[in-house]
Design goal:
10 strands, Alpha-Beta Plaits, 30% strand
Length: 247
Amino acid sequence: MRNLKVFIAYNGADFHGFQRQENAISVQEVVEKAIGKLLKIPPPVIYGCSRTDTGVHARRFCFNVRIDSKIPCTGFVKGMNTLLPDSIAVLSCEDASDDFHARYAAKAKEYVYLINTKPSRDVFLQKLAYHYPYPLDYEKMRKAAGLFLGEHDFAAFCRAEGKSRVKTTVRTIYELEITRNDGICEIRIRGNGFLYNMVRIVAGTLIYISEGRRSLEDIENALENGDRALAGVTLPSEGLYLSEVYY
């Protein structure tokens, strides 16, 4: 029995997240069915590095799957890419150790949130970036970004029902960069783990900082006492990308 470590990319616009759903199409279901068809076996269970919500995209998403097949990794990649829809692509495949698990072995993850600040919506970015047609105060946002760095309790930056899924809401943020290019604001955040909707709430808080609706003190207090009301709005899913997983 082999344990394959596979990286994929997907456009999440047409999927109800990665994880299998009873009454909706998911990335996991589509990939499992493709593996089953390729190897002529019942669809195996794949184990993803993360859950992604409806509409969220991934540039490099990792999963592992156990198969009893001698198919070469190059053949697996080529075969899968002939069977998967255009919205999902297999990037790489390699044999991993028997104890490798895509989720539990991850040391860090990086997410990107894209904001289109052009006055008119870009039809070529529909469902690929959040349209916010107003100027952003990058200086204020970058000052606020520095407050998130390091180890903090991010309870205020988590959707309420997500707190029951985890043992602790403490996370460590290694990097939070904000750049702009031709009207597109890119918020890049790397950490040892993320809570439910955490990146989207952090991005929404940075917009509130830009607008003057929140202050640096509000962020400090939110990190200190966990008050969700001191953070910003949860931005829509279409601007969010799982960009990289580090092992």
